[in-house]
Amino acid sequence: MPTIKINSLTSIESNPSNTLLETMEQAGLDPEYNCRDGHCGACRCTLVSGEVEYVGFAMAYTKNNEILPCICRAKTDIELDDIAHQIKKRA
Ligand code: FES
Question: Which parts pass through the membrane (predicted)?
Answer without folding.
Answer: none
